[in-house]
Amino acid sequence: MDSAHLENDLVNVLFTQEQIQERLGEMAQQIAADYEGKDLLMVGVLRGAVMVMADLSRALPRHCEMDWMAISSYGSGTKSSGVVRILKDLDTDITGRHVLIVDEIIDTGLTLSWLVNSLGSRGPASVEIATLLRKPEALSMPVEPKYVGWDIPNEFVVGYGLDYHEKYRNLRDIGTLAPHVYS
Ligand SMILES: O=P(O)(O)OC[C@H]1O[C@H](OP(=O)(O)OP(=O)(O)O)[C@H](O)[C@@H]1O
Ligand SMILES: Nc1nc2[nH]cnc2c(=O)[nH]1
């Protein structure tokens, strides 16, 4: 599959790579201001958050540490159920640390509300969330990301870390897939 083919599978580009970098730059400025004088541990949620973590952290004009978690949500079909299992835990002791969870999308909100509770029980100084995208369903969940790139409609999106059957994560833009991909 060449890159031209990859781009052609998008029916609608929601955010271009330029828009994504600009928005992440704005979020980074806000994060830098909010965490001034504090240590900052950014926790990426594998695998989709790899791109956001790479670009958001490099847009930060300050030091930060990074760690990663891999979690799996169980549910029927493609829906998350909120029953979460840790596949890879943090290597860092977060007691007394300022933790910023970095993810690319909050959909139902189940995964991150579980993760905030889980990390919150380890005695951190604070736990906040930065997500590039948020879908409407998450607004009715007890999960309040401090930093949100964009609120988007309830559509399945791919690119910039977001996959469809593990493909399209390496697209630079974010968009919706053409119907022929699903058939
Ligand atoms: O708000 P929710 O409905 O719980 O969904 C959000 C989760 O879904 C995505 O991960 P996914 O399970 O697709 O795994 P991936 O990062 O490995 O692609 C995303 O990174 C969040 O962790
Ligand atoms: N690729 C992808 N993964 C998701 N996980 C939760 N919502 C989405 C979405 O819209 N796209």
Automatic annotation (TrEMBL):
UniProt-recorded name of the protein: Hypoxanthine phosphoribosyltransferase
Top-level EC class: transferase
Entry annotated with the keyword Cytoplasm: yes
Gene Ontology biological-process entries: GMP salvage; guanine salvage; hypoxanthine metabolic process; IMP salvage; purine ribonucleoside salvage
E.C. designation(s): 2.4.2.8
Domain Phosphoribosyltransferase: 17-164
Listed Pfam families: Pribosyltran
Lineage summary: Bacteria, Bacillati, Actinomycetota, Actinomycetes, Propionibacteriales
Family: Belongs to the purine/pyrimidine phosphoribosyltransferase family.
Organism expressing this protein natively: Nocardioides piscis
Keywords linked to the UniProt accession: Cytoplasm, Glycosyltransferase, Magnesium, Metal-binding, Nucleotide-binding, Purine salvage, Transferase
Functional pathway: Purine metabolism; GMP biosynthesis via salvage pathway; GMP from guanine: step 1/1; Purine metabolism; IMP biosynthesis via salvage pathway; IMP from hypoxanthine: step 1/1
Locations listed in the record: Cytoplasm
Superkingdom, taxonomy of origin: Bacteria
